[in-house]
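Protein in question quoted for reference:
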Amino acid sequence: MTSNEINIAFKTVEIKNRNGWEQTRVIAYNVIAPHLKNQPAIQKFMPFNWDNEGFKQKHKVTTKEDLIRIKSFYDKIKTENNNG
């Protein structure tokens, strides 16, 4: 794996983690909102450090060469695991 592929894997985990926390925030807000006099914005109710970042994702377009290289990498691992 290249460092770019590792970076993409980490970003994927980070996005999944964020999605879980966003879900938690929505549930918590919906549970408590009826009991609040003034209902603050959901981001003010439970702020996260990524709220101000916006949701910017830049992905490198996967090329045919990338797919061939990744497939050969996994084929090599598969062969090593079957022989070992």
About this structure: Residues 3-83 form one domain.
